[in-house]
Amino acid sequence: MNDLGTPVLDNHLHLDPEHGRGIEAVKDFARSGGTHLFVVNKPSWLLGVEAEKGDDFRMTFDTTVEVGARANEILPGKAWPVLGVHPGLISKLVDDRGYPPADARDLMQAGLEVANEYVAAGSAIALKSGRPHYDVADEVWNASNAVLRRALELGAETGCAVQLHTEGTDDLTDVAEWAEDAGLAPERVVKHYAGGKLSGVTPSVMSEKERLTVAVERGEPFLMETDFVDDPDRPGAVMGPKTVPRRVSWMQERGYDDGIRTAHVSTPERVYGVDTLETLSR
Ligand SMILES: [Zn+2]
C-alpha cells in the first residue's frame, strides 16, 4: 500500500465485476494510495438491460451496491454507490426503440425514482442524471431537461447530491437555477467529466494535469475523477483506476496541498456530507 498521508477520492468511476476488472481495479486504486470511491452504475444498456419500466433498472443498481460493499472490504476508506439513469439512454429509446420522447422521459424518471429509493434506504449516497453531450432534436433536449430536473427534485426530497453528465461547458448556471427552484443547494450538484473551472455547480475535474492546475489555481471547491469505465472493449479509452492517486502524488510534489485538501476533504464534505478523514483507518 502506498500511503499518501491524505484521503484520496475518485469521485466518479464504474466497476463491472461481470465483464470488466471489477474488484481488481479497486485493488489497483488502493495499492496506489487511493482510499475512497464513488462508484457509479454503468449505463443499463451496457449491462444488457432493455428497461421498459422503472423496476428494470434494479439489476444495474444492485450490481453497483454489491460491488461497492466488496470495495469497502478492501479500501482503507470507503466506497459509496451513486445510482441513476444515463442521459444517453434517451437516444437508445427514441432512435433505436421507437419511443416518443415523452415516453422516454417517463421511463427515465421512473428509473430515477427507483434509484432514489436506494438513496433513501441508505444503500446509495447520491443520484446520477444529466442530458446528452451531443446535439439532439429540441423535443429530445426538452425531455432530457425534464428528466434532469426530476433528479434535482428527488435530490431535494431525499437530501442527497446529484451528479450530472452534460454537454461540455464551463457554465451550468441554468442548472444551478433549477436546483434552487427545486430546493437543492447548487453546490450539491456535480458536473462529472468537468474542466478546471465551472460556473453554477461543483466541478468533478477529469484528472489531467492541465485541468487540475486550473482547478487548483482557481481555489474554488472541486472534486477529482477518472470516469474509469471498466469496459474490456475499451481498455485504452479512459483513465485507469490508479490515475487519481498518481495525480495526488504529483500535486504533492508541486506543493498543491490546499488543492488536495479541497478535492479530497472539504468538497466531499460540502457536496455529499461525508467525512473522508473520519472514515479512513490505517
Ligand atoms: Zn461515467
In short:
This is TatD family hydrolase. 43% of the residues lie in helices and 14% in strands.
Descriptive report:
With 282 residues, the protein is an alpha/beta fold. 43% of the residues lie in helices and 14% in strands. It contains 9 helices and 8 strands. The chain has an 8-stranded parallel beta sheet. The protein is globular and about 55 Å long. The mean pLDDT is 96. Zinc ion binds next to loops.
The coarse overall form would be globular
The average pLDDT score comes to 96
Q: Distance between termini? A: 10 Å
Strand-residue proportion = 5-15%
Low-pLDDT parts are: none
Strand order in the largest sheet: 1-2-3-4-5-6-7-8
**SSE topology string:** EHEHEHHEHEHEEHEHH
Share in helix: 40-55%
Topology, please?
Elements (H helix, E strand, L loop, with lengths): L8 E5 L9 H9 L4 E5 L17 H17 L4 E6 L4 H8 L4 H20 L5 E5 L7 H21 L2 E5 L7 H10 L6 E6 L7 E5 L2 H10 L4 E3 L17 H11 L3 H16 L10
Parallel strand pairs: 1-2, 2-3, 3-4, 4-5, 5-6, 6-7, 7-8
Q: What are the salient characteristics of this protein?
A:
282 residues; alpha/beta; 8-stranded parallel sheet; 8 strands; 43% helix; globular; binds zinc ion
